[in-house]
Amino acid sequence: MKTAAELKHGERAKISxxxxxxxxxxxxxxxxFTPGQEIELVNSSVFNDPLAFSVRGTLIAIRRxxxxxxxxx
Length: 73
What we know:
It is a single chain. By secondary structure, this protein is mainly beta. The chain is 14% helix and 40% strand. A six-stranded antiparallel beta sheet has the order 1-6-2-3-4-5. The radius of gyration is 11 Å and the shape is globular.
């Protein structure tokens, strides 16, 4: 299984699930990272933390450990 943290710059993928064991699970769902949505890695910082994703036409930056719990199909 590939996670959002493993995406390359400009790569798109569809969210298949969110790992509910992560403490940020509810927050990610609330800000738009829901199963079925397409995301794209738009930008990352020098040390690859945080990562900026395009979701539902909005640019959202999240930490790498949060992106690690977003499972892609």
